[in-house]
Amino acid sequence: METQRLITHLRHVDLAVPDFDTQVTFYEDLWGLTRVADDSGVVFLAAEGSPEQYVVRIREASEKRLDLVAFGAATAADVDALAASLLAKGIQLISEPGKVDTPGGGYGFRFFDIDGRTVEISSDVAPRVHRKIEARESIPVRLSHVVLNSPNASATRDWYTENLSFALSDTLSHPYIGDVMYFMRCNPQHHSLAIAQGPHTSLHHASFELRGVDEYMFGTGRLLRAGVRKIWGPGRHMAGDNTFTYFFDPHGNTVEYTTELELLDEDTWHPHVYDFSQPEVTDQWGTANPMNELVAKESFNDPDRGVFVAPPL
Which positions fall inside the VOC domain (predicted)? Predict the structure, then answer.
């Protein structure tokens, strides 16, 4: 019998950085997010096309780290059921289910995943008043997906499958080094989460969806003209069939503009294993700079200082 899936979608990704003002300016003025709330040393940024209260939280801290990744659940009962299930399996909770004290409120809890990163699950968050993104408006519609580096990616894949009912959509594999990435879904979107094989626990990248290919290209061009460092792209992946251009934010986190991520028929979908050494797998169009070891290394990021250390808020 298939396990009931209680997680519905990806909500937000929360970053801590030393140079707070520079980071906020990048995401607000260049990346195209909207400041919706702030406190001393904390800013909440929304995507104009998304009902989520915010998709990125930036916190001022002495060290760079990934504070947390947040997912949604449909009801408070589902939140309670997930917390009880994790506790029964001996998984460490950071907080018990209760009131969420961030924009939009809600009901949720936090815990450490197998790699020690903080995960939040919440329900009953008030939707934000949002709007339709217009043609040629090159700002994010929503947060698309997050990719996490793990020193044991297959174990992390299994952990999210067994404990949070994520399903495997596709795998990237290499003939000499084995599996390099697992694409995981919690709804018909090809992936809301992916797990990459890396040298340490860290954020691989966060991806933001634009309205369409035209808006994606206008956004890519805007960042290039502003002198933002491009890592890889523009191109179109095979797994997920989505467009991609990857950039560095001011603290060396990789962020992606994308669009047209594949929606699956989950009843008939069978996961593929794609050969990562084939250029058409990494980029169907053939327009991106070639994927090589140097490009791949850019996404390893710094070792996460937040492993098994809960963020202060």
Answer: 9-124, 142-260
| pLDDT(12) > 70 | yes
- Mean pLDDT value of segment 72-87: 98
- CA pair distance 210, 138, nearest whole angstrom: 7
DSSP conformation letters of 163-224: HH--EEEEEEEETTTEEEEEEEESSSBS-SEEEEE-SSSEEEEEEEE-SSHHHHHHHHHHHH
Q: What is the CA radius of gyration of the chain?
A: 18
CATH 2.60.120.10 fits 142-298, yes or no: no
Architecture of domain 7-123: Roll (3.10)
Task: Tell me how far apart the alpha carbons of residues 259 and 257 are, in angstroms, rounded to a whole number.
Answer: 7
| Strand pairing report for 142-150 and 193-197 | parallel
* Inter-residue contact 69 to 120 (CB < 8 Å): yes
